[in-house]
Amino acid sequence: MTRVRISDVAAAAGVSTSTVSLVLNDRTSRISGETRERVREAAAAVGYTPNSIARGLRTQRTRTIGLVSDVIATTPFAGRMLAGAQDAAREHGHLLILVNTGADPAVEQEAIRALVDHQVDAMIYATMWHQVVETPEGLPDRTVFLDCRPADGTHPAVVPDEVAGGLAAVRELVGAGHERIAFVDIAEPNPPVASGLRHQAYLEVLAEAGITPDPAWHVHGEETTAASGRVAAERLLDLPPHRRPTAIFCFNDRMAAGAYVAVHHRGLDVPGDVSIVGYDDQQLVAGELDPPLTTVALPHYEMGRWATEVALGAREPPATPDQTYRMPCPIVRRDSVSSPPAAAANSSRRRA
Questions:
Q1: Distances (CA, A) of 53 to 43, 57, 161
Q2: pTM for this one?
Q3: What's the CATH number of domain 163-294+333-351, 3.30.310.50, 3.40.50.2300, 3.30.360.10, 3.40.50.720?
Q4: Nearest Cα residue to 89 out of 44, 146, 46
Q5: Residue 351 above 50 pLDDT?
Q6: Burial of 315 by CB count in 10 Å (0-12 exposed, 13-18 middle, 19+ buried)?
């Protein structure tokens, strides 16, 4: 199909190509309103659409945003994060271009060069989970980090407020009357940033409640899976009755699902015998458990929107030394938390 050119519009409107260019690019000139209207009608009649590449060369803006990720496109939360970024881009008249690198540094560098050569108006650098990363070479100035932050603090970034989310989770259990609260954590050679921050929050709430944590209450799973969560929870349930937790805060919802299995396998009830709180509010997990899981929501959609709006200049970056905004993580209350069993509560009071 032959592309309609600006000369075709000029012929249909009976004007010069320079007049058509001035009208369609809204350039200030002494062209009459009648002529402007005739040019626009002619453009519509012949089906003319402007060449975005040529327009980008003239205006130095391509109305595109590049999003470079590691393996975000294959994670459970990717859809929400990308939806937030895409919605914000569309509302500001931009197209989002996603490049998934598979966490390959060579592919990442190639993707960054390609997007810079394409003259994207801004760029978003995203990771699968909350990380502190080294700034890749070649990123343009208008780059925002999504679900990660640069170690050198050279670019704006948005990450979940892991500490505030952890505080909300453990306070939910303390508020229900629990004193023996365990934390099912993740044990890896290099545990994720979120692990340390959520553990920090766990200890902070116990301290403010005057509870001395038993070291046996902090257990680790080898992976962030339901199977790993079950094994870790089994170790908690093997503790003597006077040390056995009445509540468990889990690193994520999948591990919480495994804790449910461990509790039910012992003939116990959630939340009647053991209350459980997760983290992530993962779709098809948290709300589908029996009973539905109380958890902390990771604000992936909101983070995607924030990153895009800052990249486009529609929102100011945070005025903090590291330029990092920590997005609130709200608690989602369902049915997995209740007061501790009467026997455990009485036992706690007797020891006190």
A1: 19, 6, 40
A2: 0.81
A3: 3.40.50.2300
A4: 146
A5: no
A6: middle
